[in-house]
TrEMBL record:
PANTHER family: DUF3298 DOMAIN-CONTAINING PROTEIN (PTHR37841:SF1), GLR2918 PROTEIN (PTHR37841). It holds the Pfam family WG_beta_rep. This is WG repeat-containing protein. It comes from the Bacteria. Keywords: Signal. InterPro entries: WG_beta_rep (IPR032774).
Length: 517
């Protein structure tokens, strides 16, 4: 009997010694339950996958198996679809648990309510509404656009198999960032909506996507600015004068002379004496006039009207705009007056009323009125937040306040800002955490530190993980293989090696007790 029990215990220990135990805690760090899986994946807030003994399961909120997934691995999660991989290829499950495609395909593209799968040269379409998979035949290529249209190509022609005209061929169908397809036929270029209807007939000689649902076109002798709507392609501006387009910049020339700066649907600036326009930022332009004046133009008009004795003006904030004059940098206000005199090698706007200036490659701090706060003591300064910024000095990082006082007493190799004015710091490959005053919250002794929520910090040391709060107090010991935050269910999952407990029960002795014992 003893030998049998011992053998059975060894078998159980052998089977479970490699398994993983997961402890489930609530947000108050109270143990709720334990489950056994080799691995748990949180694909989204509501989709969880459990791995156990080479099997995959879709898990319920309480981590119980709800659906067995017939596959070797989860290949990709594209909500609401779980793409899986088996020995014969890719398959697909809906996140609700339905199996929709067997593991047979070389490629699967997804959209909200259907799947486009390829096996060799043959394509298949699965529609969730009907639950049916139909063959589209052998194709040169096929794709799903970001608006849910399917474009196929066969024998050099393009088709829209889910539209009202599934057999109609096109010379070209091109997706872009708008809600519409660019289409080409023998008659010209046009625009097609999601239903496959033309909102702009294919008659244009040239048609390009601009921004959003706006397009730039040319037809015979006129230039067009077009807005796509669900029913029509509205011509917002047309001109027989040349409109050029270079990236996001559109300019109109009248009789060969630059006259207008255009936006997506019309005239942004119309003035005589334009010489050139140069982009200097996101939707900001330097406008140079023939009288040697320069202005800064934004999407709603002048940010700084043209002024003399300035070479270049950059986008700004808080009524201050960095500007260059004769190779030196300063700062202009919106009326075009020098608020910071142009006497520095470089000016960078930071935040909270502070700018940095550079001379001889090092940076100091200015206020927005142009007063120098500090000498150029740092090689770089990042923007201030809540009165604190990260600066670099001699290849190391320090914290400084708005007056330029260094808040850290020792330098760090690297530094990264977290929420709540906390900073992850690194020295010689080890990481720790400090607060905004430079006080050490966590010793610099960990392999990695990661913020997983506003007040939960994940700690890694010697391949084990634990957790602290934002005060540096260890709330979960560094003794686990993995920690997962399950936000949807307000719980924390902790993985450790499963160690079975075997309780040995002594056999009843058949010997008689000695008297008096």
């Amino acid at each position: 009997m003893t030998k049998t029990l011992l053998t059975f215990s060894l078998i159980i220990t052998s089977l479970l010694s490699q398994a993983q135990s997961w402890e489930v805690y609530n947000s108050k760090l109270e143990l709720q339950s334990r489950v056994i899986y080799d691995h748990i994946e949180l694909l989204s807030e509501t989709v969880r996958i459990g791995h156990m003994d080479s099997s995959l399961f879709l898990l319920s909120g309480d981590l119980k198996p709800s659906v067995k997934i017939e596959a070797d691995e989860v290949y990709q999660y594209l909500a609401p679809w779980i793409i899986v991989k088996g020995q014969d290829g890719l398959g697909a499950y809906h996140e609700y648990g339905q199996k929709n495609l067997d593991n047979l395909y070389d490629e699967i593209q997804t959209y909200f309510n259907f799947l486009l799968a390829r096996k060799g040269k043959e394509y298949f379409l699965f529609e969730r509404g009907s639950g049916k998979t139909t063959s589209l035949g052998e194709l040169e290529e096929a794709k799903i656009t970001h608006t849910g249209m399917v474009i196929t190509k066969r024998n050099g022609a393009y088709y829209l198999p889910l539209s009202k005209f599934p057999t109609k061929p096109y010379e070209m169908l091109s997706e872009n960032e708008s809600d519409f397809l660019l289409a080409k036929e023998t008659t010209g270029l046009g625009l097609i909506n999601r239903e496959g209807d033309y909102i702009l007939r294919p008659v244009l000689d040239r048609l390009e996507h601009n921004k959003g649902n706006f397009f730039y076109g040319f037809d015979e002798s006129q230039y067009l600015l077009i807005e796509g709507t669900e029913k029509n392609g509205d011509i917002r501006y047309n001109s027989f004068h040349e409109i050029t387009r270079e990236g996001d910049l559109m300019l109109e020339y009248i009789h060969g002379k630059l006259r207008r700066v255009m936006d997506e649907d019309g005239i942004l600036l119309d003035t005589v004496g334009l010489d050139k326009v140069i982009p200097v930022g996101d939707e900001s332009y330097n406008v140079y006039l023939r009288d040697q004046k320069v202005g800064l133009l934004g999407q709603k008009g002048w940010l700084i009207r043209p002024i003399a004795e300035v070479d270049k003006i950059f986008p700004g904030s808080e009524n201050l705009f960095p500007a260059q004059k004769e190779g030196k940098m300063g700062g202009l206000n919106s009326t075009g007056h020098w608020q910071i005199q142009p006497e520095f090698d470089e000016i960078q706007l930071l935040s909270e009323g502070r700018a940095s200036y550079a001379n001889a490659g090092n940076f100091g701090i200015l206020d927005y009125s142009g007063d120098v706060i500090t000498a150029p003591n740092w090689s770089s300064i990042k923007p201030f937040k809540n009165g604190v910024a990260i600066a670099e000095k001699n290849g190391t990082k320090v914290l400084i306040d708005r007056s330029g006082q260094e808040l850290t007493t020792k330098p760090f190799d690297n530094m990264m800002r977290l929420e709540n004015d906390l900073f992850i710091v690194e020295v010689n490959g080890s990481t720790g955490m400090i607060d905004r005053d430079g006080n050490e919250i966590l010793n610099v002794e960990f392999d990695a530190i990661q913020s997983i929520s506003q007040n939960m910090i994940l700690l890694t040391k010697e391949n084990q993980v634990g957790m602290s709060n934002d005060k540096g107090e260890i709330v979960l010991p560094i003794a686990y293989d993995e920690i997962i935050l399950d936000v949807e269910n307000n719980q924390i999952l902790l993985k450790s090696e499963f160690v079975p407990v075997v309780i040995a029960t002594p056999e009843n002795s058949k010997k008689k007790k000695n008297k008096g014992a």
